TrEMBL record:
<feature type="domain" description="EAL">
    <location>
        <begin position="24"/>
        <end position="272"/>
    </location>
</feature>
<protein>
    <submittedName>
        <fullName>Uncharacterized protein</fullName>
    </submittedName>
</protein>
Length: 272
């Protein structure tokens, strides 16, 4: 049959998404340079107890201020770091810096550090954590690692075995962003976590949806005997809902924005 009736091929003018992709092409080299020039920095955000607003933990978040681009969002450069393997040295640097800062600051709050699935899959992960705890003097009981359900893809040794080793050392493990991925129940069944972090997208549902959905996710946490954190608390209504539905912890801009100074993150006032 004739092709004459087919629509014309798409216009060759580059749509904005392609222009953005061209900008992305040089990101790996720029990120490599950022590491060499110490242009990466850490910020610290409090995780508060719902009961009294006190700081239970501090999450470490990575920041990149590029001289050419300005601040580059973690959601943009972390995937680049993962694809290039740069996340392995970057992640080790994050862990060492944060553990050192937490050890110097003292106190009994937990330090929480995000671990990429790529970093988690490295056979050296457990010895790396052990070595950093030894070098910095941070007690293992004060360290929490945040993992996502993608960690289940990790093999040799299995994710479950790595988690067992870390927990045997005294390190705790959080399952991050629950509800944003596949909300994989196998992750909760097969791996013993200490904390379930409910993704902030839950609070961005409609007013009619978020109460019931949050209540259901909190029930899942209880079914697995896990304390929970509600992420993305921005409004006083979010904070009220998290407390009313019985979450153990909450985190978000209302409860403290990420701070460059760890001491400042610990000293932020509790909202009313
Ligand atoms: P995450 O681990 O779920 O971290 C929480 C993200 O939510 C952070 O974004 C934080 O700044 C943001 N956030 C906190 N409170 C609020 C709020 O009330 N409203 C809104 N809209 N956002 C809030 P950030 O720092 O841009 O990080 C994004 C993601 O990048 C993180 O999600 C984590 O998956 C990854 N990431 C950040 N730092 C590191 C790191 O050092 N290592 C690894 N592997 N991943 C990291
Ligand atoms: Mg996290
Ligand atoms: Mg999260
Ligand atoms: Mg996230």
């Amino acid at each position: 049959p004739s092709q004459a009736g087919l629509p014309p091929p798409p216009s060759p003018a580059a749509p904005p998404v392609l222009q953005q992709l061209r900008g992305l092409a040089t990101l790996p080299a720029e990120l490599q340079q950022a590491i060499a020039e110490n242009a990466l920095a850490l910020v610290y955000q409090p995780i508060r107890r719902c009961a009294d607003g006190s700081v239970a933990a501090i999450e470490t978040l990575l920041r990149w201020h590029s001289p050419g681009r300005g601040p580059v969002a973690a959601d943009v450069f972390i995937p680049v770091a993962e694809e290039t393997g740069l996340i392995v040295p970057i992640g080790a640097w994050v862990l060492r810096q944060a553990c050192g800062a937490a050890a110097r600051a003292g106190g009994s709050w937990r330090l929480s550090v995000n671990i990429s699935p790529v970093q988690f899959s490295q056979p050296e992960l457990v010895p790396l954590v052990a070595g950093i705890l030894r070098d910095t003097g941070l007690p293992a009981e004060r360290l929490m690692l945040e993992l996502t359900e993608q960690m289940l893809l990790s093999r040799f040794p299995s994710a479950a075995e790595k988690v067992r080793k870390l927990r045997a050392m005294g390190v705790s493990l959080a399952l991050d962003d629950f509800g944003a991925g596949f909300a994989n129940l196998a992750a909760l069944r097969d791996i013993r976590f200490d904390l379930l972090k409910l993704d902030r997208s839950v609070l961005r549902l409609t007013a009619a949806q978020r109460g019931p959905v949050l209540a259901s996710l909190l029930q899942i946490a209880r079914a697995f005997d896990l304390p929970s954190v509600v992420e993305g608390v921005e409004q006083s209504e979010d904070w009220a809902l998290a407390r009313q539905l019985g979450s153990d912890y909450a985190q978000g801009y209302l409860l403290g924005r990420p701070q460059h100074d760890l001491g400042e993150a610990l000293a932020l006032p509790v909202p009313g």
